[in-house]
Design brief:
Layout lengths: L21 H11 L6 E5 L5 H7 L7 E6 L2 H14 L3 E5 L12 E7 L8 H10 L1 E13 L8 H5 L3 H20 L11 H7 L3 E7 L4 E3 L6 H15 L7 H10 L4 H24 L4 E3 L2 E8 L1
Parallel strand pairs: 1-2, 1-4, 2-3, 4-5
Antiparallel strand pairs: 5-9, 6-9, 7-8
Helix pairs in contact: 6-9, 6-10, 8-10
The structure holds S-adenosylmethionine (SAM).
The site of S-adenosylmethionine has 22 residues, from helix 2 and strand 4.
């Protein structure tokens, strides 16, 4: 990632608006017994997607504070909140050193943030610290590795070696990213254990029920956003990550430079074949992944 590109810039496209079914989140709000007018903290808020969803589940008397290390995202989140008249304030800060008093929020939450942190368990301890007694910690994090076997129609017919090259590439990159202290991309399945070690009670794990068809002519808003992302990534030197990060993580995960070159050519060729199938209107798949909601009470 270029040094002047703010964190996660590749992942803030329209695709992000289709991650959750709203009626599923309403069900979750009932299961959790979300207070009507909570003070909510959204850690690593980005441009505010997740925080706005949380606000939509509670009354207009709720308030939300969002914190992110990137000034550009804080500014953008504040601009959107002002435009929509939301009771949300945003500030710059580090998830590893939350600048809030102990026990100051009813709900503390984050979405796809722990996957980026060197010490996610320490960050969770900080989130617990600023949570009122009886308050709820809610974390939405994926197990991304499972996505490497969501093949779709085009890739299902690929040689097995090609599919396995993808899985190996992703596994070694995830291990390497973690070894370099840049986060664990499949941390979702480890978060419940962290909650338990922090002494949270009623630890529960749920899974997003969002799965969407991706069928020609890819006309629904979710399909159009997915199509745009897949074509954009295929047309550039980009896989799930840019070449530079992918190579760094692959090597740190135990892969060799020669294997990286071979596998990069494989995954890029696959992306381009899928892009060609989308352009020809022959690709069919389901967009889904293992995306967990983990909750517990202080
Ligand atoms: C994938 S985005 C998620 C944004 C938002 N939670 C959402 O779901 O739309 C990850 C966010 O975490 C932020 N971030 C990464 N490390 C951070 C840290 N140490 N402290 C605060 N924010 C951080 C990034 O700037 C980015 O906005």
């Amino acid at each position: 990632m270029a040094a002047d590109t703010p964190h996660s810039a590749e992942y803030f496209g329209e695709q992000r608006d289709f991650w959750w079914n709203h009626d599923f989140l309403e069900l979750m709000a009932r299961r959790w017994g979300l207070p009507e007018a909570p003070r909510i903290l959204d850690v690593g808020c980005g441009v505010g997607h997740w925080g706005r969803l949380m606000l939509s589940l509670v009354s207009a008397r709720a308030t939300l504070v969002g914190i992110d290390r990137e000034p550009k995202w804080v500014e953008e989140a504040a601009r959107i909140a002002a435009l929509q008249g939301l009771p949300a304030q945003y500030q710059q800060g580090d998830a590893a050193a939350l600048p809030f008093e102990d026990e100051s929020f009813d709900v503390v939450t984050c979405q796809t943030v722990l996957i980026h942190l060197r010490d996610p368990e320490a960050a969770l301890a900080g989130m617990r610290r600023v949570l009122k007694r009886g308050g709820l910690l809610i974390v939405a994090e994926p197990q991304n590795l499972s996505g490497s076997l969501m093949l779709g129609k085009t890739r299902f017919a690929s040689p097995a070696e090609e599919v396995l090259a993808h899985v190996r590439m992703q596994l070694l990159c995830e291990r390497g990213k973690q070894a370099l202290g840049e986060g664990h991309n499949s941390i979702g399945e480890l978060v419940p254990g962290m909650f338990a070690r922090l002494g949270l009670t009623g630890v529960a794990v749920y899974q997003s029920d969002m799965a969407s068809p991706f069928l020609p002519p890819y006309a629904s808003p979710a399909e159009a956003a997915q199509k745009q992302q897949l074509l954009d990534w295929a047309d550039r030197d980009f896989w799930y990550w840019d070449r530079e990060d992918t190579q760094r993580w692959f090597l740190a995960g135990g892969g060799s430079a020669e294997e990286f070159e071979r596998n990069w050519a494989v995954v890029r060729a696959t992306s381009q074949r899928v892009a060609a199938a989308i352009r020809a209107g022959t690709e069919e798949s389901v967009q889904a992944g293992a995306f967990f909601l983990i909750s517990g009470r202080r």
